[in-house]
Amino acid sequence: MKINFEFVDKHYAARTHEKMKEVLMDPNGDGPVNYYYMIRGGKEQKNITIWEPGTVCGEYIKTYGHYHVGKLDETYWILYGKAVAVEQKLALDKEGNMIPNVVEEFRAIPVKAGDSIHFASGHGHLCANVGGTYFVTADDSPVGFEDKKDEASMPGHADYLLVQKMRGFAYYVVEYRGKPALVKNKLYKEIKKQDLGGLLIIEK
Ligand SMILES: [Fe+2]
Q: Where is the Glucose-6-phosphate isomerase prokaryote domain (predicted)?
């Protein structure tokens, strides 16, 4: 396989606490400087993500979450640790645009090393690290270093704005009596269908 070494120094990025405040259940909570680290090799070489363990005001350390631009599915292979993967598909208006606060289908999926998860095209996704160790994945989403400066941190295939607008997904993954549970994000108006993966919903 031919690797393009020209972009190697651009492969790495980290998601900071400052940026994550936009999507935290409690933006005033204390968290690590960096929540997760990304090394982007793209579809062929794969992308590696490493999550810090821990909670911020009870919410497990998570990825920011995004929707894919255009028709693009994605597979994550869990290499180490334990997480709850969160997937949501937004309802569409008459023009086919996503309605930010109406969820057609929500899923929480507990995962561990050895599992893989497939996210269908149009399904937003994030993972929350619910173990006491780093959580590590490989995924096959594309990168395009040629046309974008900040590709490692904010790849062109991902739309973060809908998540930013809603301050996260429809539920936050929180620690409750030592185990993962869910807290509803009250900014969402409706969730039409949900599969919570056996997790409890608690009030915060
Ligand atoms: Fe993705």
A: 43-175
